[in-house]
Amino acid sequence: MIKVPTTPEVSFVPEQPGVYLMRDASDTVIYVGKAVNLRRRLQSYFTAQPRGGAKVLAMISHITHFDFVVCRNELEALILEANFIKRLRPFYNILLKDDRDYPYIRVTLHELYPRAERAWRVEDDLERGARYFGPYLAGDIYRALESIRSIFPVRTCRRNLPRDIGKERPCLRYDMGLCEAPCQGYVTQQDYYAMTEELAAVLGGRRGGLRQRLREEIATAAERLDFEAAAAARDRLAALERLEERQTAVLDSERDMDALGLAVGLHTFCVQKLEVRAGRINAAATFFMDLGALEPDHPAAREFSGAEAGDDYRMTQTEVEQNCLRAFIAWHYPEAAVIPPEIAVPIKFDEELHAGLTELLNSLPVRRKVQLLRPQRGERRHVLDMAQRTAHEALQRHIGRGRRSGEYTVSPTTRAELGRLAGCPSVPGRIEAYDISNIGDDDIACGMAVFIGDSEERDLSRLFNLSDLSGQDDYTALRCALERRLARLDDPDFGARPDLILVDGGIGHVNAAREALAAAGENIPLGGMVKDSRHRTRGLVIMPESEPIELSEANPKIIELSGTENQELLRWLTQIQNAAHRVAGRYSGKLRRARNLRYRLEDIPGVGPKRRQILLENFPSLAALAAASEEEISAIPGLSKTVATEIYTYFHPEIRENNTEEKEEG
């Protein structure tokens, strides 16, 4: 490996195949690429006016020096590039998933007493024997876990077994028949482990043996009139069928394969991956990659990658598609939980590239030899066509999302730049933004807005009632809200762990948030969104810097400070800031309305604090209470007929007046 000095002089670089590693001032590798001609490739980066999209230009601005490795041929360079990317995970080798998290089911077979649980990403325990299945859509994974735990009574606790066997009583799941209580030694380690191995086989699509055994258990139990055992086996069989209902049978044979659909847009390409296990579509995932990740010396990628304009080589559409799939396969499969023996692709690779990719795949930990296929007909072609259609639809959604009112698509480059500024190790997938809202010293609340990718997920927003605090102290309120959030990082009601936390405010707000993170022992990247005197988003506070990182000047007309990417980043930060403000303001308003309702209720005779609380829990507003009939009010537990009459007449004074007139006449 040869290291080049800070001055980007490339005349001594050989015109041979190889791999290059771009480094920044801290000597960190920020990008890895391969080239058929190393000198030509590197010259394309360091011309007087390098051409390229925002991603490439942003990367070039951070390059201080580079390394390169000369290879014998392009195949060797392909494999070496993939190995470097897997090991170093450079910041600008970007692959983006669709705009949500896709969780996995993890079976911890590396433990003596394994568990089946949700996992948000494939961890290092894969190398120690853990099995991962998925990814699943968020709703599907809960239904799959419910079904699988109904079939196999595995533990869900985190007790350290066998160390803690017998130290505590079994949990409620044992009493419900949902766990065999290995924590008490009620099942041998060998039998329990064998059950979890079968569980993993079922998740992998091997269900025929279990289905047959359950049917035999039902028949045997019925013959000996053990109807309770027959019912239990029947319920397990029903759970197995529910699990299968969510997976479409697409192949007659129990074949394992991945089908990769591809759609190429102007700036982005999309890969749709369908996982077929035992003849059924087991899971699906959608990925987007910036076209700037293509080979810079290909003319089709020249706009995005800074290639020389004078190059007279013209790449065909097939070569563009080959390069897209090459980039995806080299990035994705070294990190995949499982690599099936067949990977179906929609295009034909040239012979040399096909050989290189096949060699790369088989150099990874695989159970069987991997083949790259391009099926022309039959069941496999049907699955591939399905992946192709889905890829094109996903790309259109990805592009069209920006045309909806109030929304737009944020480029992968902008997402990467925000992550870089905030110190994220990779492009942030889940961003949580916090804002404090109050009216004077009352109705203090904190709103949490959530962005997955570049899209706000309103169903994931959360509200923190901080009415127990007094006074206008945003720092204390923010610290308290974050402490409550950080205490529930593993709570599925809150979703995944955030990759980045943004707070609405400046240095003081970021310091308060940092104190909460330190108290919780967490090291989540953190930033503050600061505004100018006209309440417009102008910059980002990043710790430990003492000054905001300015993204534009005070004058809103001067936006091209470092290129158009800052304009988009400012616009996106404004959207994030507005979302957090909206969530907080909505809840603060709700608290204010509840307080006003409470004050009005204090005027009603016979309604003390206890009954006020009952009314607040059953009626959202004064209008709702005023519209209720006397019978509806008296039907609420804790309210007598007399009190209901007082409440009803309070909102209908004409009744009280009529009663008074009748008494006077009498």
How would you sum up this structure, described in words?
With 666 residues, this protein is of the alpha+beta class. The chain folds into five domains: 2-93, 3-Layer(aba) Sandwich (GIY-YIG endonuclease); 109-245, no CATH class; 257-401, no CATH class; 412-593, Nucleotidyltransferase, domain 5; 602-665, 5' to 3' exonuclease, C-terminal subdomain (DNA polymerase, domain 1). The protein has 21 helices and 21 strands. The strands form four sheets. Strands 14, 15, 16, 17, 18, 19, 20 and 21 form an eight-stranded mixed sheet that branches. Strand 15 and strand 16 (455-456) form a beta hairpin. Helix 3 runs parallel beside helix 11 and helix 14 (474-486) packs parallel to helix 15 (507-520). The longest helix has 38 residues, at 564-601. It is globular.
Descriptive labels:
666 residues, alpha+beta, GIY-YIG endonuclease, 5 domains, 8-stranded mixed sheet, 6-stranded mixed sheet, 21 helices, 21 strands, 41% helix, globular
Task: Offer a concise description of the structure.
The protein is an alpha+beta fold.
Number of strands: 21
CATH H-level superfamily title of the largest domain: UvrC, RNAse H endonuclease domain
- Helix share of residues? 40-55%
Shape estimate:
globular
Percent range for β-strand residues: 15-25%
Number of helices: 21
Q: How many separate domains? A: 5
Q: Low-confidence segments, ≥5 residues, pLDDT <50? A: 1-7, 96-101, 296-314, 402-407, 552-565
Rg: 31 Å
Looking at the structure, the CATH topology of the largest domain is Nucleotidyltransferase, domain 5
Question: Main β-sheet, in a few words?
Answer: 8 strands, mixed
The CA-CA distance between the termini, in Å, is: 110 Å
From the 3D coordinates, which CATH architecture of the largest domain would you assign? Answer: 2-Layer Sandwich
Query: Mean pLDDT, as a whole number?
Result: 76
